[in-house]
Amino acid sequence: MNLENTQIQMRKGVLEFCILSIISRGEIYASDMLEELTRAKIMVVEGTLYPLLNRLRKAGLVEYKWVESALGPPRKYYMLTEQGHQFLQALRTTWEELVASTNAIVNAQSQL
Amino acid sequence: MNLENTQIQMRKGVLEFCILSIISRGEIYASDMLEELTRAKIMVVEGTLYPLLNRLRKAGLVEYKWVESALGPPRKYYMLTEQGHQFLQALRTTWEELVASTNAIVNAQSQL
DNA sequence: CAAGTTACCTTGTAATACAAAGTACTTGTT
DNA sequence: AACAAGTACTTTGTATTACAAGGTAACTTG
Predict the structure, then answer these.
(1) Is residue B22 within 8 Å of B33, Cβ to Cβ?
(2) What DSSP character marks residue A49?
(3) Domain span at residue B83?
(4) Which pLDDT tens digit goes with each residue over A14-59?
(5) How far is the alpha carbon of B67 from chain A, nearest alpha carbon, in Å?
(6) Mind telling me how many Å the CA of B41 is from chain A's nearest CA?
(7) Residue A112 in this model has a pLDDT that exceeds 60
(8) Burial degree of A19 (CB within 10 A; 0-12, 13-18, 19+)
(9) Coil, helix or strand for A67?
């Protein structure tokens, strides 16, 4: 149990939320998601993202279409399904509640 | 992949942080931690808490002492080690950065 | 056509949350 | 003393999943 491991754990929980949020803004493919998440300091790598996108698809939250690329192989562009939009809305509530709960715990009266 | 499962995932990441925070406020034993976490809507059960406390102890972040109870079996009262205090301070930073990063992603310009 | 780039996918490992069942100590009742 | 009930801590087995590492495939460039 080291700090890095715990930091990874913390990020895990919000990964799905972040990915669904990014997809909700418009069709996008995996490499661009990776770039955006990295820019926002939400660490994620291919080996995590691709299986996660597949789980989201199997769960009916996202779907994709193949799009030819001007340079390189074709890309899978992802978009949310109606169910995905609803799920994302529920996650927004969950996230807000989690932030509130956690802050309540960690900012509670201390006996320092 | 259902909503409840994802909510659990989200909470997982901050569990260690919450537990260390609670212990930092003063010596406390497991059942009282459970009650406080439940009150704050951070779901956790015995089968999660006890192994986690053991991991924290093996990592040198917490230690405990046995205390006789007026009613019932003796209790393990936990407290942070010096290393635990430092770790908690690092997690505070991690948490703040995670909240900032996530909000940046999910509140980014949408094309709704 | 060989090398490089881009994109997507798979396999194996480790971590860990939880359900469920178990162990142990104390108190109250008969 | 035997038993039931309550409290506290522990263990086992299962499922999920993030990641490292390596693989497959399409396209471009020299």
Answers:
(1) yes
(2) H
(3) 15-101
(4) 999 999 999 999 999 999 999 999 999 888 999 999 999 999 999 9
(5) 20
(6) 6
(7) no
(8) buried
(9) strand
CB neighbours of B41 closer than 8 A, spacing ≥ 6? Answer: A97, A101
Q: Is residue A112 part of a domain?
A: no
Would B76 be classed as within a structural domain? yes
Tokens standing for residue B20: 């260390």
Instruction: Residue A107: count other Cβ atoms within 10 Å of its Cβ.
Output: 9
CB count in 10 Å sphere of residue A45: 10
Number of domains in chain B: 1
The pTM (predicted TM-score) of the whole model is 0.91
Q: What is the C-alpha separation between B68 and B53, in angstroms, rounded?
A: 20
Question: What CATH number should be reported for the domain holding residue B46?
Answer: 1.10.10.10
Q: In angstroms, rounded to a whole number, what is the distance separating the alpha carbons of residues A32 and A38?
A: 10
A residues 1-40 near B, CB within 8 Å? 1-3, 6-7, 9-14, 16-18, 21-22, 24-26, 36-37, 40
